[in-house]
Write a structure and sequence with these properties.
By secondary structure, this protein is mostly helical. About 80% of the residues lie in helices and about 0% in strands. It starts with a helix and ends with a helix.
């Protein structure tokens, strides 16, 4: 699973202009994928964090449900 994430990150397009990573981290923390997509002006930067979040939510809820039934 982690290999797929690393491959996906390696295929991101290059930025047209230089961006500051600390501002991107702040925006990503507070506004998630929507904020990153707007900051980087890229659909991929919007879609990738949203997809990772959905996968983590589905995985954690299935694991939590399985643990709660014991």
């Amino acid at each position: 699973m982690l290999d797929l994430l690393v491959k996906g990150l390696g295929r991101l397009p290059a930025l047209r202009t230089e961006r500051r990573p600390n501002v991107a981290a702040f925006i990503g923390f507070f506004f998630g994928g929507l904020g990153l997509g707007l900051y980087f002006r890229s659909f991929v930067d919007f879609l990738l964090p949203i997809a990772v979040t959905v996968v983590l939510i589905v995985t954690s809820s299935s694991i939590g449900g399985g643990l709660a039934s014991f």
